[in-house]
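worker-03 picked up job from queue 'complexes'. Input manifest follows; two sequence lines, order preserved.
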Amino acid sequence: MLRTKRFTPYLFVAPMWALLLFVFGYPIVQIFNFSTRRIRGATGPFIGLENYRQIFTDDIFILSVKHNAMLLLAVPILIVIALVIAVFLYERVTGWRFYRFLFFVPYVIAIPVIGHVFSNLLSLNGAVNELLRSIGLGVLALDWLGSEKVALWTLMGVIIWREAGFGIVLFLARLLSLNEELLDAGKIDGANWLQRLWYIIVPELMGVIEFYAVICVITMAAWVFGFVFVMTHGGPANATQVMELYIWKYAFRIQLPGIASAVAVILFLITLAAMVPLFYLRYKDEGTEASA
Amino acid sequence: MSMESSSARTEDQQWQDTGLRRDRTAFAKQIPLILLALAILFPGYFMLITPFKTQLDYSISKLGLPTQFYLGSFETALRGGRFFLWLVNSIIMAVGSVVVASVVSALGAFALARMSFRGRAAMLTLNAALMVLPPVVLIIPIFLLYARLKMTSTYSGVILVYAGLITPFAVYMLTNFFKSIPHEIIESALIDGASSVGILLRIILPLSAPALVTMIVVSALWVWNDLLIALVLLPDDKLRSLMVGITLFGGRYSNDVPVAIAGMLMASLPMFILYMVGQRYFAHGLTAGAIKG
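worker-03 finished. Artifact:
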């Protein structure tokens, strides 16, 4: 540690905190404030918890919460896909360099592009259904984004398609720093592939798996706006309505920022709750770092 | 050694056996990999062939190859969308916000990594929490404030917001890297009488080039790919980012799929080429923050 005058460190962090207070601090305080007001223009009269009462009696809001919760099903799917693929790549299967390059490509393609391309691919007479019909699976040719029953699951599939690459690269990076002797010992003891995965790799990677799980939970709860906005706009008949789109609609279309702020507060609290395991991990880490 | 004489034949068989098993597991591993590869290549194939089809070609077959090599869709797309303007806007916003974020994060991370002071641990924790806070939570007050200050549809206003949103990640990454620089190097500079700022500028930053590059790539990618903030804070047609531009463009040409996809293809090329060139930085940068923890 550098020896400095007492106030020097604070001078160094001051610009950063000025910026963070403006972009994070001010808005977080204000959504709580706005959520208790009926806002017209810049501000409005205090109405207590009326905005919250309104959203909780709005079926569409309840539906959007339910949809975000259903999207959480993607979290375990993403973890399993990313882990298995990452382990294959780590084992240097034929073509692993090519796979590693390819699997990350969806992550560098912009979400609006992905949204438009998949909207066309998955339309009733789109390429996917054309393919299904041509191989005699015409019964599976659903109206992927136009049917209320499947639209949300289709959306989830597209999100998984894009987000899996990040998990693969993340797990692979952690695997490469793994002590190889552990796996060799497992092999010598006659553990098969699944046993090595479950008893050696998963425990060793627990930290980064938990990290990825938290990121995925937050993504599914509060970071799918781009997909929904481009592909379905919440439709058909609110079948893919999610909290973010609800906020956007109330804040910038219907122009009732008070209602939108109440939803933003709820989303903020959900994100905070999802972060708890992350900080628990961090805390544990700092503890071991200090004692080492 | 004595076992050698027992039977050369069984040993041979054993060898063949494991070899065969290895082949079989290698084959089994290829199946999910190939399936995933196809799932990624299929939309890629669609994106590459569709723009070269006429609308008639497309209506006859979505998957077949074009019957003629048609370039008209690109022409229409370039006339219908202001891709170059959007591209320039996105570059201005990405560069501007990354510059602002880099300066404040380098200063902040230097203090957090190398100086001891009250509140340091709390600052690190708070900063990590801000990293995963979704922007949709913050956008309403910023929009209302900007509307009152007449700052919507200004580069500076949006750059400030983007800079703030990418700063937590930048600070996190730089702090971790600054911590790993050996103290001896800094000590020798101290003996030469360098000031704190001097140490940051002349010793820490030059040594941190790899961390800075990955931080810049990841932050720029984040700004580049944002849709929500650009949509809300930049309603002016002339200031549209590439993401907002192509979103509206795709909507406008939803009845002329080859043109829409031609636009999507052109809009994706800059980032795709950057990824091809700097694959290492993308993957490394995006995972660097996480692996440490």
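worker-03 released lock.
Residues 1-9 of chain B have pLDDT under 50 and may be disordered.
Residues 2-70 of chain B form one domain.
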